[in-house]
Every structure is written in structure tokens, then in C-alpha cells.
Design a protein that fits this description.
Blueprint: H1 9-22, H2 30-33, H3 52-55, H4 57-84, H5 95-116, H6 121-144, H7 146-152, H8 155-164, E1 169-172, E2 175-178
Helix pairs in contact: 4-5, 4-6, 5-6, 6-7, 7-8
Length: about 180
């Protein structure tokens, strides 16, 4: 059995033919074999840069998601008040109502998110921040405008809120933090 080390003239000829078909002739230098950049063409229409109104939509979508979270808490508390009387305290110090309001607000926020076509993890976080913000500070709004809240809820509810909470505080799990 003889071993061919590539010195067979027919093999060399076949190899040279394949190289020629591929455009890699051995007599061309390597620099010539690189593809040249495509010639620049002018676009048929000028490229239109986004207008500032288009660019601001994304940051405003976070504000919208945050507000959806806040509106969700308001709707949850409004519905709970008008269906069950919606007090602020219970045997657990209000934690059960915080959980109920949070769960209803998440469900309402999900529906509003679908209605306003706001998707993405970052928007869910902004909505959750809105839920947490109003869920822990809504009583401050009641202290600022008791007449308005009495018209929406009831004078008794406003009296209860102003009696059990202090203005300019954040309430979380029964603890009040001043700011």
C-alpha cells in the first residue's frame, strides 16, 4: 500500500480547480482576497430621527405604571369599604386588611396593566412600588383633605383614619414611621 503525500498530479489539479471555483487562486496575495466594503449608497428617503415625544414614552410608562399601582390601592380600599365597611384595624392590628388591600390592588393592577398595555418586569416593579407607596401613606391624604375623603368614603371612616393614624407618617405592619 503506497501512501500518497499529495504529490499525485491529478489530486493537485483537482484541488487547484476547487480553489479557482471558490476564488482562492494561489497566485493572489491574501490582502486581495479580503472582501472590499460595499459602496455607500444614499438612502432614498432621509432617515427620520425620533421626535422627543416618541423618546419620552418609555420613561413616562414607568410613571404610568406607578400611578396604576396607586389607583389600584384606592380602588381596592374603596371597594372594600363599600362592600364590608372597610375599617382600618382588626384583631391583627390591620395586617389582614393590608394583605387584602394588597391582593385586591395586585388583581386590579393586573387588569389595568392589560387595559393600558404596560408589560415588562420593570413596569411590574413600578406598579408594585405604587401599590406600596399609597398602601402605606394613603392616611396622609385623608389628614390633608378630610372633607373630600368623607364624601368618597364616609365621615365615620375619615374619623377612624384620623384617630388611629398620625399625619406625615408611613404605616407598615402596624408600625408608624415619621417623615
Amino acid at each position: 500500500m503506497s501512501h500518497s503525500n499529495g504529490s499525485d498530479p491529478s489530486q493537485k489539479q483537482a484541488f487547484q480547480e476547487r480553489l479557482a471555483r471558490l476564488g482562492h487562486a494561489p497566485d493572489r496575495p491574501a490582502a486581495v482576497m479580503q472582501a472590499a466594503p460595499a459602496p455607500r449608497q444614499r438612502p432614498s428617503e432621509p432617515v427620520k430621527l425620533n421626535d422627543w415625544r416618541e423618546n419620552i414614552k418609555y420613561p413616562l410608562s414607568f410613571v404610568g405604571a406607578f400611578l396604576i399601582g396607586m389607583v389600584s390601592v384606592f380602588i381596592a380600599r374603596f371597594v372594600r369599604f363599600h362592600t364590608t365597611g372597610g375599617g382600618l384595624t382588626d384583631e391583627l392590628g390591620g395586617e389582614l386588611f393590608l394583605i387584602l388591600d394588597g391582593a385586591m390592588a395586585l388583581a386590579i393592577g393586573f387588569a389595568l396593566r392589560m387595559a393600558f398595555n404596560i408589560h415588562g418586569k420593570e413596569h411590574v416593579m413600578a406598579k408594585t412600588a405604587g401599590i406600596l407607596a399609597l398602601g402605606t401613606t394613603m392616611h396622609n391624604l385623608v389628614h390633608m383633605q378630610p372633607e373630600l375623603w368623607a364624601a368618597m368614603f364616609s365621615p365615620e371612616w375619615v374619623e377612624e383614619v384620623t384617630y388611629f393614624t398620625d399625619p406625615n407618617t408611613i404605616i407598615f405592619r402596624g408600625y408608624s414611621f415619621e417623615f
